[in-house]
Amino acid sequence: MQLSSGLSPRRSRLWYRAWAAIFIFMLAGSIFALYYAAKQVDYVWRWYRIPQYFWYVEQVETKSMLDGDVVAVEQGSGGTVITVKGLDGEEERYTVPGGGEVRVSRGDMVSSGDALGFHEQQHLGVMVQAAWLTLEVSFLSIVIGIGLGLITGLARLSHNPALRWTAITYIELIRGSPLLVQIYIWYFVFGTLINQLLGKYGLPQPSPLWYGVASMAMFTGAYVAEIVRAGIQSVHRGQVEAARSLGMTSFECLRHVVLPQAVRRILPPLAGQFISLVKDSSLLGIIALRELTKATRELITSNLQPFEMWFVCAILYLVMTFALSMLLQWFERKWLTS
């Protein structure tokens, strides 16, 4: 469905196609300019090396731990079983899984560390693992941030001064400092204190992932609280008074009158906040979380392919944020038509 403000005058089909052609020309020109500039600095594009960072096949060797002779090579239920008899008479069995290749035969002499066979194992690449961690951190932060923001937004509108002042203090503290500083505080200050206290009583210590989630959720919760507050206050006061005059309690009025209307108005800004959160997760690399940006930096130090890797990193972020945007737009349409 094409959205229109209704303010622009109607244009002809030729006008539309001409500007579409100009857009395609500018896009193609930008790509060519980038390619030409890279050629001038003698940069060699190696896109063929990128797929291994998404999916790769590893050859796993089965090695002998004894010096001795191969006394049996038999086919078992789990693969090929190789029996090695050591010089002192000790026997050990090694299994090469089905589909693997056996490199020895009965009667061969082997030494400790020799490969008896190998098989292939398929693994997810570094970029997929990092993208999954980025999604995991973002999802947890969004869920916790929504709950925190909803409670804080309601407390911000409460007549109870303790609740209202607590909400205002939390919102202003969070919004008044950079997210990067908050991540440092959560990891190096709160993390150190909490881990030492838990260690003192013999309790398990949280991983850096949870301090990253806590910092992101607290940061998101403050902004969600202001979005919730603005959405609730946008509902006309007359509707609240009408609901109360019909005998509804404050909770019933909030549940049946205010929130259904407020949710429709806060969904678009919430979508922007969540998309920003996914991108802000790139800061978590400073606390040793191997999210997408940190994994990209590490790969660049080893393969010296900064152009390809940063483009791939940007595309993965684009895929995640675009999918999230489409999901929220679908939810918004479903909510509006319900």
Question: How would you characterize this protein structure?
Answer:
The chain is α+β, with helices and mostly antiparallel strands. The strands form two sheets. A four-stranded antiparallel β-sheet has the order 4-3-2-6, with no helix packed on it. It has a three-stranded antiparallel β-sheet with strand order 1-7-5. The model has no long low-confidence stretch (mean pLDDT 88).
Brief summary:
The chain has about 350 residues and is of the alpha+beta class. It is built from 9 helices and 7 strands.
Helical residue percent band: 55-70%
Q: How far apart are the termini?
A: 18 Å
Structural class: alpha+beta
Largest sheet: 4 strands, antiparallel
CATH fold group of the domain at 126-289: MetI-like fold
Number of strands: 7
Main location: membrane
Protein name: Putative glutamine transport system permease protein GlnP
Transmembrane segments: 14-38, 130-155, 167-189, 309-331
Function: Part of the binding-protein-dependent transport system for glutamine; probably responsible for the translocation of the substrate across the membrane.
SSE layout and pairing:
Elements (H helix, E strand, L loop, with lengths): L12 H28 L14 E9 L4 E9 L2 E8 L4 E7 L3 E2 L6 E2 L4 E10 L1 H31 L4 H15 L3 H22 L7 H26 L3 H9 L4 H31 L11 H12 L2 H32 L1
Antiparallel strand pairs: 1-7, 2-3, 2-6, 3-4, 5-7
Helix pairs in contact: 2-3, 2-5, 2-8, 3-5, 4-5, 5-7, 6-7, 7-9, 8-9
Keywords for this structure?
extended, four-stranded antiparallel sheet, single chain, 9 helices, transport, membrane, 338 residues, MetI-like fold, amino-acid transport, alpha+beta, OB fold (Dihydrolipoamide Acetyltransferase, E2P)
